[in-house]
Amino acid sequence: MDRAQLLLVGLPLFLFCSDIVSLFSPPPAKPATNPHHHHHHHQSNSPPLIQQQQQRSSLEFPSQKSSGSGVGNTVKIDFCSSCSYRGSAVTMKNMLETQFPGINVVLANYPPPFPKRLLSKLVPIVQFGMIGIIVAGEQIFPRLGFAVPPPWYYSLRANKFGSMASTWLLGNFIQSFLQSSGAFEVYSNGELVFSKLKENRFPGEIELKDLIGRRVANSRVIDGEFWS
């Protein structure tokens, strides 16, 4: 193969390998911080900041005082990571942690069904198979028992670069579709409180705050009755 063919084959291979490495590489470790280093710096500014946060929260969410603390409660948000829902999940997580101090909010990926996951693993194999046929089909087909390549091979070979680019882009689109679940499921202490798969929409911040607030209030009532 000449340099152009090596470039056309090597570029998709490099992109695929980079996707695999980024998929399985561990997240970077958080830098260690010394809590005593900035102790005096934050101590002098903490009362005004607390007062400002209390005033701001009382203006934006008047029912925060009635919801109480979230200590001992766990909220799990299962979202479709391939659908770019992480930003919405992080926004909901920050809102819940602000409104219910001490609450544990867990973010996790909601995977698609097993058949779709299996098909998504086969898409890269088909991609590289088609690219290999486009580049070296004249040597591959005789080894497969074909004396003459089929007519569609010559159609693809006539526009080699366009055929390879179309194969790569179409395969990535199909793989992204198969890996998407479209889910945004919210659980409070193991109980489903909102499901995008059922409602076909995202929850509003105030709506989700009220849903979680009811569960937190019920858990506090149950705990109070238990200990009494």
Automatic annotation (TrEMBL):
Residues 1-23 form the signal peptide. NCBIfam families: CXXU_selWTH. Keywords: Redox-active center, Signal. InterPro entries: Selenoprotein_Rdx-typ, Selenoprotein_T, Thioredoxin-like_sf. It comes from the Eukaryota. This is SelT-like protein. Gene3D superfamilies: Glutaredoxin. SUPFAM superfamilies: Thioredoxin-like (SSF52833). It comes from Fraxinus pennsylvanica. GO terms for cellular component: endoplasmic reticulum membrane. Pfam families: Rdx (PF10262). The keyword Aminoacyl-tRNA synthetase does not apply.
